[in-house]
Amino acid sequence: MTANFMFVSDDKYVKNLGICTCSVMESMCSTVEKLRLFVMDCGITEENKARLQKQASKYDNAELILYDIDEKLNEVMPKVKTKWHRAIYGRLFLVDILDQYDGIDRMIYLDCDLLMAKPVTELLTMDLQGKCLAGVADAAGKERKDALHIPQEYTYINSGVLVIDTARWVALDASRRIVEYINSFPEAFLYPDQDAINFILHDEILRLPPHYNVMWMLCDRDIPKMKVYIEDFPYSEEELSYALHNGHIYHYAGHSMWTFYGITPIHAKVFKKYRRVCDWRKEKRHFESPYKLLLWLMVSAKSILLGEWPWNEEF
Fold it and tell me: How many separate domains does the chain show?
């Protein structure tokens, strides 16, 4: 079996991409015959391209393929400026890969600010029930569905992990429709690509269990309280607790993996595991400010006192 994964990055986020792809190769190479990592390149330097290729060459059955879309991004950039980096639109060039590679029935898209802790081979063959996409529900689901006028019976997913039926994506002309939707509004979307993907494909989405995209904001140590504050969140306390301690993919959404604040102790331990073996292991971790250093120390002390720090977690 050949597993196909897709990523998007520029040079600013290349160290995230480096450790992310390392985690995927460490997790997946022993479970599949061939692993292909398609990287949509939004301006990665030649030096870092070589670094990525060197890391991939350590795995006999892994192939890292870079697609230069730096200039092409101008074709899909929204008319309204947003705070988000242009790289978020890179996944819309999925069709470019499909034009050059035959036989890709399933593509798994991953944001580069996440780490794979366990193999996800089941996602390669899972029944999508005729749907185009599968993903994990986002905590802001009800709010975003209200804002976008998506019927509440559908799932608003976080777009950091997407399991894509490529034939269905092409048949629905998804890339073009998403771009047109983004450009049809006079104001910026809150989450441009994610909002548009959910609106255009809202009836084409299958909900995944939360352990495939464990976002720190979903599991920030007080799951019962979170269930109260987030109305109609589709996962139970048991599902979220299981995901936190048995996650397949941990997402550092909204926070750099290379800073300490804003991630759970388990997220921190998964990062430490892959930092040791990736080619960016000499990069220093840092705090964004003294205030965040203080917050991290307070959260860490609380976790230790309450026995919540995962000293014995295995990944």
Answer: 1
The answer to whether 109 and 87 are in contact (CB under 8 A) is no
Closest CA to 109 of 169, 44, 53: 169
Does residue 52 belong to any structural domain of this protein?
A: yes
Place of tokens 């771009």: 179
Gap between the Cα atoms of 129 and 112, Å rounded: 27
Return d(Cα 60, Cα 214) in angstroms, integer.
Answer: 29
Specify burial of residue 81 (Cβ count, 10 A radius: 0-12, 13-18, 19+): exposed
Residue 106 lies in a domain: yes
The mean-pLDDT minimum among 55-69, 75-89, 202-216 falls in: 75-89
Question: What's this model's pTM, rounded to 2 decimal places?
Answer: 0.89
Q: 3-state DSSP call for residue 2?
A: strand
CA atoms within 13 A on the CB side of 224: 0
> Does a structural domain hold residue 313?
no
pLDDT at 228: 59
pLDDT value at position 249?
97
Residue 198 forms part of a structural domain: yes
119: left (phi over 0), alpha (psi -120 to 50) or beta: beta
Sign of dihedral through CA atoms 142, 173, 11, 101? positive
Best-predicted range by mean pLDDT among 9-13, 79-83, 95-99, 164-168?
164-168
CB 82 within 8 A of CB 188: yes
CA of 306: how far to CAs of 286, 302, 309, in Å?
A: 26, 6, 8
Based on its alpha-carbon atoms, the radius of gyration of the chain, rounded to whole angstroms, reads 19
Residues 28 and 119: beta-carbon distance below 8 Å: yes
Range of the domain at 162: 2-305
79 CB neighbour count, 10 Å cutoff: 10
CATH of the domain at 125: 3.90.550.10
